[in-house]
Inverse folding.
């Protein structure tokens, strides 16, 4: 393998590494976005269902 082959292999490896890092970055951003959307959905669901009253007694014997 000559110098040209070594240089080409190095460039190819660098390109692959850059593409891998870019893909990973995009996936992380997508996951962060999904996490934020899930948190907002949970918050909306918690607000939609009122908490049951805590000081009420239900008579089940009647």
């Amino acid at each position: 393998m000559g110098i040209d082959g070594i240089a080409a292999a190095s460039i190819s490896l660098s390109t692959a590494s850059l593409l891998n890092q870019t893909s990973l970055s995009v996936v992380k951003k997508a996951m962060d976005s999904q996490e934020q959307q899930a948190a907002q959905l949970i918050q909306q669901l918690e607000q939609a269902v009122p908490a049951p009253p805590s000081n009420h007694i239900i008579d089940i014997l009647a």
Observations:
- The chain is about 75% helix and 0% strand.
- Residues 36 and 54 are 31 Å apart (CA to CA).
- The radius of gyration is 28 Å.
